[in-house]
Design brief:
124 residues, mainly alpha
């Protein structure tokens, strides 16, 4: 399976530049916001028809139609899958928030541990 040139053993890009992951805080924030917004919309929209679908399934089942049982199974599958997707979006949002926070802490730690005079030693 190809990874677009990423990962162990991948050839260096033209020019010999190394691969460093560059992430900007504002990009992580925007992605986290989008993931949270998607989570909220999915949570709200996926739940809109639950009560109506359950009522219809019950009515069909009580009327002796097999369609009622099938609609109940479909509704349960939809609810399970939509909750999984909502949870995944929440996980992504939370992970991006955590990543932003952790990188910020790491930046502060590096800035306080490596003084300017020490930095010049690394360039000798």
């Amino acid at each position: 399976m190809g990874h677009g040139g990423f990962g162990p053993g991948a050839a260096s890009p033209p020019g010999g530049a190394g691969r460093d992951l560059v992430v900007h805080d504002n990009e992580l924030g925007a992605l986290g916001s989008h993931a949270y917004g998607l989570r909220e919309r999915l949570r709200r929209d996926a739940d809109q028809a639950r009560a109506g679908t359950f009522a219809a399934a019950t009515s069909l089942f009580n009327g002796g139609l097999d369609l009622g049982a099938a609609l109940t199974q479909l509704s349960e599958a939809w609810n399970t899958q939509s909750r999984t997707l909502v949870d995944a979006c929440g996980h992504i949002s939370n992970h991006l928030d955590f990543t932003r926070s952790q990188h910020s802490k790491d930046d502060v730690k590096v800035a306080t541990e490596v003084s300017t005079s020490r930095i010049t030693e690394y360039y000798r």
